[in-house]
Write a sequence for this structure.
């Protein structure tokens, strides 16, 4: 389906790409089937909290081929598609997973700043405080601030380099926070002090590894040049060159249809474009409020800023949620130029319509709001437009 992050394994041959499917993996049989298909690593989610013993057994048996995704909200682990909060703190379960032999944990703080800006110092300070108060190390070197850093594909991140000493070992951890991707990643290395001599010999391969870090969520335009089946049964065909045709149904292209040109923006460019379209009255502050609410767990079908209170547990909710981020936010403008009833009957003229919302890779669907009619619509990917 898609990966949350990937390292150039051909270049460094250190790790395998994480492959996430739309299936919830809860049995060893499914793990074995995916690994037999060539999947480099299986990521376990809610089952890691619900059935910790199972996760520990899988980690012991399959080693680095098992990873765990931990989503935390306000410091506590969120499970079942973010519908429930467990009583365990995110840092505590990360520690238990480490002790059980899990080598890779993908930690996402879903309660952070929804605009994808800021450094999330609270998470970093909690991590450092945890290391210090639990005596994980006899000595710990940790910077007071996070440092700006950019991934190889240009994603703005914040990083911290933590060096810990325990008995005869040196532990090095590179913490990478990618706000616009709504992700927190850690890269770890260790060596014997008498062999390494100093931490630089551990940091060198870690930093070299991270030089190839890329993100595959929200890194490409998922809408331009594609054909979508719309919620009302109509079919929207977007050409690569910027032209479109909108048919009343996918089965019948002989009926009257609209055609024109379109514009697509995503990520920060989409936010800036919508805020600049003053005729719609949407300010950057309002857009950031919507984004903040959505990043706490997006509900297809017209999420609203008030949904934030469902996502944070202040109101009871059992709807399925999806992870979105700044880079999966889209603004699409369709400039209707003519209504074609037949080659001989073409009516020139039309209006422009703005759609804003999120593309959900798991569903291959754009969940959008028609800003002219203030209605919700869903565009489901069908194929690349011929």
């Amino acid at each position: 389906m898609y990966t949350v992050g990937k390292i150039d394994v051909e270049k460094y041959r250190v790790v395998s790409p994480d492959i996430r499917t739309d299936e919830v993996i809860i049995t060893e049989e499914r793990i074995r089937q995916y690994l037999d298909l060539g999947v480099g690593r299986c990521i376990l989610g809610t089952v890691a909290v619900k059935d910790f013993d199972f996760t520990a057994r899988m980690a012991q048996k399959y080693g680095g081929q098992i990873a765990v995704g931990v989503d935390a909200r306000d410091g506590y682990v969120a499970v079942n598609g973010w519908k429930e909060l467990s009583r365990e703190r995110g840092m505590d379960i990360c520690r238990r997973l480490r002790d059980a032999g899990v080598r890779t944990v993908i930690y996402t703080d879903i309660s952070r700043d929804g605009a994808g800006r800021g450094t999330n110092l609270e998470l970093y300070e909690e991590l450092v405080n945890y290391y210090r108060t639990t005596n994980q190390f006899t000595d710990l070197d940790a910077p007071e601030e996070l440092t700006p850093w950019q991934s190889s594909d240009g994603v703005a991140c914040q990083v911290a380099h933590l060096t810990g000493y325990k008995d005869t070992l040196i532990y090095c951890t590179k913490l990478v926070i990618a706000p616009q991707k709504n992700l927190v990643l850690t890269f770890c290395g260790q060596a014997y002090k008498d062999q390494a001599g100093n931490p630089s010999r551990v940091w060198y391969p870690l930093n070299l590894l991270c030089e190839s870090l890329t993100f595959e969520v929200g890194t490409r335009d998922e809408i331009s040049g594609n054909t979508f089946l719309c919620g009302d049964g109509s079919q929207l065909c977007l050409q690569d060159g910027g032209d479109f045709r909108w048919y009343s149904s996918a089965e019948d292209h002989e009926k009257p249809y609209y055609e024109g040109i379109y514009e697509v923006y995503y990520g920060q460019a989409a936010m800036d474009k919508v805020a600049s379209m003053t005729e719609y009255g949407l300010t950057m502050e309002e857009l950031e409020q919507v984004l903040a609410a959505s990043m706490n767990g997006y509900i297809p079908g017209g999420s609203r800023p008030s949904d934030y209170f469902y996502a944070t547990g202040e109101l009871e909710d059992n709807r399925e949620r999806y992870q979105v981020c700044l880079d999966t936010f889209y603004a699409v403008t369709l400039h209707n130029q003519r209504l074609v009833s037949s080659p001989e009957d073409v009516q020139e003229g039309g209006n422009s319509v703005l759609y804003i919302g999120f593309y959900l890779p798991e569903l291959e669907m754009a969940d959008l709001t028609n800003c002219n009619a203030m209605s919700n619509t869903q565009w489901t990917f069908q194929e690349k437009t011929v």
